[in-house]
Amino acid sequence: MQALSVEGLYKDFGGVRALQNVSFSVGVGERLAIIGPNGAGKTTLFNILDGQLVANSGRVFFFGQDITHLPAYSRAHLGLARSFQLTALFLNLTVLNNILLALHGTSRSRFGVFHSITSYQHLCDEAHELLDLMGLWEKRYELVEAISYGEQRKLEIALSLAAKPKLLLLDEPSCGLTTAESDDIITRISELGSDVTVVLVAHDMDLVFGVAERVIVLHYGEIIVEGTCDEIRCDSRVAEIYLG
To answer: Is the pLDDT assigned to residue 118 strictly greater than 60?
Structure first.
């Protein structure tokens, strides 16, 4: 079974066509990268996949279920999570409280309004596991505004994982990071279990080739190339798009 199947997506904004006949699938546990120059339609595609935008035509299937017209929150409950290019964190709260809030929001404990969030041991255990996975456990008591931007990016991924997603959409996870921070992000994504399917959008080719098993190239809203990392490296059309 495919984790995600996209069939013939079209999206217009007025007289501008952002996506044209986009079709692809992602296997369970696969790591797929979507690349392309600015304006290629990558963010529009992600916004359709997670339910923020509705396509003019085409369909989206999630583990065989047609989710084309489902709202974003319903897709999240099914197991589709996303991180964004710009971080959306509670900067005046600690790292630990950020992750506890994310876990609390997806747990039955969210209906218990008279208990402290830290009183739920299972949430604390899960927070420890997620922060440890992202190398942030030692920073758990620090305010988010006090940690580095690279650490904030890792926390953003941890928040996405709090919902125990089957499919994780990562939008430019290494944007604004140093080379060392980007290398660490590559390691963290690579260490995610095979039970999490990953689709990422990125301009960072080191990240793409360090994580992806397969790459799709978007250009002016169309898929022009699809293949392995080696095939993408050697493709003359990709070189022309990125190098001119």
So the answer is: no
